[in-house]
Amino acid sequence: MGCSSCSTGKDGQPKGCKNNGTCGTDGCNKLTVFDWLSNMSLPNGSEPFNYVEVRFKNSRKEFFKNTDKLSLSIGDLVVTEAKSGFDVGMVTLTGELVRVQMKKKKAIIDGEEVYKIHRKAHQKDVDTWQNCRDREEEIKKRAREIAIALKLQMKISDVEFQGDGSKATFYYTAEDRVDFRQLIKDMAKAFSIRIEMRQIGYRQEAQRLGGIGSCGRELCCSTWLTDFRSVSTAAARYQQLSLNPQKLAGQCGKLKCCLNYELDVYLDALKDFPNQDTKIFTEKGVAYCQKTDIFKEMLWFSYKDDAANWHMLSKHQVNELVARNKNKEKITSLEDYAIENVVEEKAMVFENVVGQDSLTRFDKPKSSNKKKRNNNKKRNNNNNNNNNNNNNNNNNKSKNKKRPVKNAKK
């Protein structure tokens, strides 16, 4: 958790901020900006920035002007202006960092579309807002049934009510353009509210709903990722990944955003590498590139007539041979330049580099008395068995001696 109010209280019970299921300091919410200027005072004669950032359901954030100069802090519920009616949201950022965020998101200061903050939310406003939030799942299910009955090729993924309960925004995804005029009429008749349909992409849908990725962590788009760059299969090819759509696709069904994280490093490393379709002309024949190892800076080539035998060359050797081909110099064979791929097995030696004590320093040393006792028992058992065998043999001999010998036939 991101704030101290989520720590453990008395008798092992969770402390909590008791803010109607939301975080009171906004430290536990996704896509939250840390206010590192909160403990710094403003210079003399300067007034605080009169805009605040307000978060609504999931990750939707907007900027509002604090015209009445209310003393607002992170986590306060406020009543904001809307196109029609009012909305209820939570303050997520105040001060000079709001100016930085507005500049980053290219929001216009003192524009015509900037809305204002009316007041801090009263208990009545919070109750109305909470009742609307409780109806969202039921209305979403009913809206999906209406869309299926109308045979519309769309998926309603989320519903967001306005704070006063007069309007609901339905977020949906679709491959093609959808004519939802009849859908709006049916939903307005069924729910008795104003309807607004808003189409979003599959990545935005995953951002709003959240989930766990194949790496075992929460989705990047629902925790910290704010901009969605286009991801292509070329990113997987540069990183020499297998083009398996089941492994490269994320929860949204599109290519994973993490394919772009290390792409720039691979592109920088591939600047000095020859192309994958590089050919080396030798007296034995033409050699083609079969494999590339970016980390070891090695390439494997094979002749056209003997594709099963690969010859390992370094990056510098390949560049040198290609340059000699351009100058029309003769190259006898790849065997003269090939590097033997010998793997030396080295014993793993773990050293105490940082000078830490052993983890087993408090354990009692295991005595070898048990081993000695077990060995003595085994020896005694063996001796007893040998003695028994010897006694049995002696008894058998004595019996044989005592038996009378039959008289031979006369």
From TrEMBL:
This is Cell fate regulator YaaT, PSP1 superfamily (Controls sporulation, competence, biofilm development). PANTHER family: PROTEIN PSP1. One of its GO terms (cellular component) is cytoplasm. Pfam families: PSP1 (PF04468). It comes from the Bacteria. Residues 381-397 have a biased composition (Low complexity). Residues 360-410 are annotated as: Disordered. Residues 367-380, 398-410 have a biased composition (Basic residues). Residues 115-200 form the PSP1 C-terminal domain. InterPro entries: PSP1-like, PSP1_C.
